[in-house]
C-alpha cells in the first residue's frame, strides 16, 4: 500500500489532462511557441503552469502539423513521436 503522497515520480508518469482541454491532444504554449502532446506529457512540460497562465492554445484540426504550421515547435519532452517533422 502506498501511503506516502510525496514519493518521487516514476519515470513513466503522465500528467492529469486539464479539464478545459479534455478533448484536446496537442496543446500550444503561446509564451514559448512550443506544442505539447498531452498523451505523452510529463511533469517537466509544466502543463499545469501553462494552463494556469492562460497562454495555452489548442488547434483546429488538433494535430502537430497544424501546430507547426502556426509556428510552434515540438516539445522536446513529450513530442519525440509526434510526427510533425
Ligand atoms: Zn511537452
Characterization of this structure:
This protein is an alpha+beta fold and 85 residues long. The chain has a domain at 24-74. Helices cover 14% and strands 14% of the residues. The chain contains 2 helices and 4 strands; from the N terminus they run E-E-H-E-H-E. It has helices at 47-52, 64-69, and strands spanning 26-29, 34-37, 56-57, 73-74. The protein has a 4-stranded mixed β-sheet with strand order 3-1-2-4. The mean pLDDT is 84. The protein binds zinc ion (ZN). Zinc ion binds at residues 36, 41, 45, 75, 77-78.
Q: Features of this protein?
A:
85 residues, alpha+beta, four-stranded mixed beta sheet, 14% strand, globular, binds zinc ion
Secondary structure blueprint with pairings:
Elements: E1 26-29, E2 34-37, H1 47-52, E3 56-57, H2 64-69, E4 73-74
Parallel strand pairs: 2-4
Antiparallel strand pairs: 1-2, 1-3
Quaternary structure classification: single chain
| SSE pattern | EEHEHE
Cα gyration radius (Å): 13 Å
Q: Provide mean pLDDT, rounded.
A: 84
Quick synopsis:
By secondary structure, this protein is an alpha+beta fold. It is built from two helices and four strands, in the order ββαβαβ. The protein is globular and about 25 Å long.
Amino acid at each position: 500500500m502506498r501511503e506516502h503522497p510525496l514519493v518521487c515520480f516514476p519515470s513513466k508518469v503522465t500528467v492529469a489532462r486539464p479539464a478545459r482541454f479534455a478533448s484536446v491532444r496537442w496543446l500550444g504554449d503561446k509564451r514559448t511557441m512550443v506544442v505539447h502532446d498531452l498523451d505523452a506529457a510529463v511533469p517537466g512540460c509544466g502543463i499545469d503552469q501553462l494552463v494556469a497562465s492562460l497562454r495555452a492554445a489548442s488547434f483546429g484540426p488538433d494535430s502537430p502539423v497544424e501546430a507547426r504550421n502556426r509556428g510552434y515547435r515540438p516539445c522536446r519532452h513529450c513530442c519525440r513521436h509526434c510526427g510533425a517533422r
